[in-house]
Design a protein that fits this description.
heterodimer; A: alpha+beta; 7 strands; globular
Chain lengths: ~375, ~70
């Protein structure tokens, strides 16, 4: 997008959008009577909805704004929780890590405006529709612009040689078809992990026939409660390794991830929950983290690195009705290469992954 | 006769008050003030925005580090 396009207000916004009845300065501050842009932008609030949306949105959208502070796209408490688990308990070390998180992790967030009016700042912003408010944020500009390297490529079929998700390819379902406004807006309740969010999507909400006791498909009956849907219905997905953050000579924050690979690994479900009760297998994805992620800020700050796996429960967005695993029983049973074995993990990450690594004798035997 | 013309006169007064009310309140305040707003006049003009955004880009130091590498 050209810089001017990012801030160009559409006439349709002024003529048709009820938000245009509110003057610009009511939300954005600045000086509407100034004669040049520099003076006009004095005291400007580019996003009046972040971090606190009360003033800008609360008067009309009170219920949503009230719950919104716990929205994982804004609160980012899931990042904080997992880094706290890995970090040293030393206060001074934690403060250094916190500084790193503030400079890198916490710059990637959303807000009311960054979903309903513009692209998120983390992808360089810009109005999505000339400042018109989109009740349903557009998928390409507001979802996959951030969730691009993994979700978008999986869902749209952009990973080489791999098909897109059947929900998109056949039904053209967009993100909001499953990830509803209620989920996005938060429940007024904090969660430590995104998979704990109570109103997050679940396959069985739509596919009840697959999990009912009289399911027509035998394999659904056999595997119910033991393996996640993705184990059979996903294909390879992206795994990222390492992430180091720092600041360059100009003081600008940067990150470096070392490699990403398409792979498919079944791991143990280390923590069966109400939402994901599978007592055996789930899909696991390697996430971009390493023991030295915050070394720029504090050497070896993640002293409890092994507290959380680096191969993490995943729900790849590339669902297929038929996959290599669904071909026959032995397409999975006895097929070691599909499972996350000790040899698949880096030696210095084995302790972190001990609860998800599948012991060879736990691999289902061939039939 | 007099009563009838008085009635018409009252009707005109009521009509004028009614029209006056709509004239003052029917147009949203923001639309009235937006006409005078520098924000709107500038942010709806491609020509002005191209000029200003170029001016800003020339003055602004880089916002992103060239050292960023890999997928986020």
């Amino acid at each position: 997008m050209e810089p001017y396009e990012k801030v160009l207000i559409d006439d349709e916004y002024l003529d048709e959008d009820s938000h245009a009845e509110i003057t610009c300065e009511t939300c954005h501050g600045g000086n509407p009577k100034a004669v040049n842009w520099e003076a006009a932008h004095q005291g400007l609030i580019p996003d009046p909805t972040y971090p606190d949306a009360n003033k800008a949105c609360g008067e009309c959208h009170e219920e949503i704004v009230k719950k919104n502070t716990t929205n994982v796209h804004i609160a980012l408490n899931t990042y904080q929780h997992v880094i706290n688990m890995r970090a040293s308990s030393d206060k001074a070390v934690r403060e250094k890590i916190q500084e790193g998180m503030k400079n890198h992790c916490f710059t990637c967030h959303s807000s009311c405006g960054q979903c309903h009016v513009s692209r998120p700042d983390s992808v360089e912003g810009g109005f999505t529709a000339g400042h018109r408010f989109s009740k349903k944020p557009p998928m390409a500009t507001n979802c996959t612009s951030c969730h691009g390297s993994r979700v978008e490529k999986e869902y749209l079929g952009k990973n080489p040689g791999l098909p897109g998700d059947v929900h998109y390819i056949k039904k053209r379902m967009e993100c909001i078809s499953c990830h509803t406004g209620d989920e996005m807006h938060g429940m007024g309740k904090s969660f430590n992990h995104r998979y704990e969010v109570e109103n997050a999507p679940r396959c069985e909400k739509c596919h009840q026939d697959a999990v009912s006791s009289d399911a027509k498909i035998e394999t659904h009956k056999i595997h119910k409660g033991k393996v996640s849907c993705h184990v059979c219905h996903s294909v390879a997905y992206k795994n990222c390794y390492n992430c180091h953050v720092g600041k360059d000579a100009n003081g600008l924050p940067y990150y470096k991830t070392e490699k990403s690979e398409l792979d498919f690994k079944i791991g143990l479900n280390q923590n069966p929950t109400k939402n994901r009760p599978y007592n055996r297998f789930v899909i696991v994805r390697h996430i971009p983290v390493s023991k030295g992620t915050f070394d720029f800020y504090v050497k070896d700050g993640l002293t409890n690195f092994d507290a959380v796996p680096t191969w993490k429960l995943a729900t790849p967005h590339n669902i297929q009705r038929k996959t290599p695993q669904t071909k026959s029983c032995n397409a999975c049973h006895g097929k070691k290469e599909l499972f996350l074995l000790e040899k698949d993990t880096a030696p210095d990450e084995r302790a972190a992954n001990k609860k998800v690594i599948v012991p060879e004798d736990a691999i289902p035997r061939s039939r | 006769m007099l009563g009838k013309s008085k009635g018409i006169w009252y009707l005109w007064v009521v009509l004028l008050i009614f029209l006056g009310y709509f004239f003052l309140c029917g147009i949203p305040n923001s639309v009235q003030s937006q006409d005078e707003s520098t924000c709107i006049s500038c942010h709806t003009s491609v020509k002005d925005l191209v000029k200003i955004t170029r001016e800003i880009a020339a003055k602004r130091p880089p916002q992103k580090s060239a050292e960023t590498k890999g997928e986020g």
